[in-house]
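Good day; I would like, with your permission, to put a structural problem before you. I would ask you to consider whether the tokens describe a fold that such a sequence might reasonably adopt. The full record is reproduced below for your convenience:
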Amino acid sequence: MDMRREDERWEHLAPGVARRRLPGWDATVGLVAGDRGLLLYDTGSTVREGAALRAEIGALLPGRRVTHVALSHSHFDHVLGTGAFPEAEVYGAVGLAELLLSGRQELRESAVRHGVGPADADEALGLLAAPGHAVSGNLTLDLGGRQVMLANVGPGHTPHDLALLVPGSPEVVFCGDLVEESGE
């Protein structure tokens, strides 16, 4: 990643690939940069957290914006920041869009039960757009000079899990909560 400024919150995993562990629920977001596109894997737990990510990414890569968002699964700490990226194309596993549209009350209750303020949860749900691109099987995206593969890995942590493979040396895989340390 051609960084204009180092940011200790972002761990660089490979050229053009970084991750950041978010406070609170210890979710990890991933960032992949191509010549023409930036893909963010997961968006955080609130619009405020998503907006902070957007600002950090803008500082790391001046003049660039997130063009693609891939959502690993339906839990609030991975999707409720999506409203901070209204210009991005949003991808999710087949069935995720329907779940986010029909399960908003359950998503809100889970967020509030885990400590998100009711007003923050309401704002995030009001701005949350369901994925416009449903991934069945594998889907390759071209970010310009870099291809990434989204993989619908089927039921795992949730019924609708989506992983991201970034080819290269080293290869990088983002997999949401399919692998996590918290044990929850």
